[in-house]
């Protein structure tokens, strides 16, 4: 199967290269850039031993004539127009950006950008692999979930769907490493400002809030607005979403753990940790894992759920390849069965 990547020089793009390079079924057919026609290793010297291919301009006719699937690792605002043209060509497309995840009004409100063609947005299937497998199997266009929503929704899904918590009480305290902001230069993610620091950003206006609420609403019609606060961590990769909610009645941790085990049984990448064990971001680094630990506090009646992922893998390129596997009828873990790197 032939895969093309647009936005290859970004962090999502280079992670797609790493994963697809060792994938047994997908070949990297072509790699595309708006800014370079150099060999990719000049942008990323660690690829010199394995990749001599040159970056190519984005010619959608040529790409769609040869590729079976196109990954858009492009910024929000750029993806929807590319997806629209590729959909005319009857090709499978997986978009890593936020362009296709929300309805147009919500997108314009939260992203402060013009939305793409509503009919294309409507066709996009939300690629939360563990929850939407049936729709993904038959999809032509995938809106790959955001990094924070992936960690948060995998963590909250079982209790929200089962109606175990007061839907007006959900609070998510989320933290990301700096690679989540992409490769471009920004003062807040520069070494001197991010290192040995911890800061809140986009207070109550983060663009992933409506994406999370949209999926919670699908699971539970009593969904109310959530409190969601993002922090920039001085690490390269990793997201931790710490989710709090008020339980509707008295539940013991072990019963809720059983629910999580049942929900994610047969799902190779979601790991529910034993009672009194809580995940750390390094335990999923460079893997497609989402590790979850939780505790029901008998004193407050609240549950705390900790969910960690690697933002570039399960939060972006890894989940995108997992979705491609599902779309092409392969096992979802094909080419993704690598363990985390540690330390
Ligand atoms: N970083 C992360 O952890 C995650 C990122 N995402 C999303 O994935 C996408 C890629 O993110 P990331 O790789 O981090 O971002 P980067 O900024 O690192 O890379 C994006 C790449 O897109 C290309 N690009 C820029 N403008 C345009 C344009 N107008 N048309 C086509 N291509 C363009 C650039 O490559 P070139 O100059 O070669 O064209 C650039 O290198 C984004 O939408 C992001 O929001 C989603 C989940 C997690
Ligand atoms: C650390 C950091 O800055 N992370 C970015 C993640 C952005 C992203 O992934 O953008 P989409 O909206 O296209 O999903 C942020 O919080 O905005």
CATH architecture of the largest domain: 2-Layer Sandwich
**CATH superfamily caption of the largest domain:** Dihydrodipicolinate Reductase, domain 2
Give unreliable regions as ranges.
none
In this entry the ligands are: NADPH dihydro-nicotinamide-adenine-dinucleotide phosphate, N-acetyl-L-glutamyl 5-phosphate
Give the % helix: 25-40%
Strand order of the largest sheet: 8-9-7-10-13-12-11
Task: Summarize the structure in words.
By secondary structure, the chain is of the alpha/beta class. Helix 4 (79-88) links the parallel strand 3 and strand 4 (92-95). The chain contains twelve helices and 13 strands. It has a seven-stranded mixed sheet with strand order 8-9-7-10-13-12-11. A six-stranded parallel sheet has the order 2-1-3-4-6-5, sandwiched between helices. It is globular. It folds into two domains: 2-123, Rossmann fold; 148-311, 2-Layer Sandwich (Dihydrodipicolinate Reductase, domain 2), CATH 3.30.360. The mean pLDDT is 98. NADPH dihydro-nicotinamide-adenine-dinucleotide phosphate is lined by residues 7, 9-13, 33-36, 73-76, 78, 96-97, 146-147, 179-180, 182-184, 311-312, 315-316. Catalyzes the NADPH-dependent reduction of N-acetyl-5-glutamyl phosphate to yield N-acetyl-L-glutamate 5-semialdehyde.
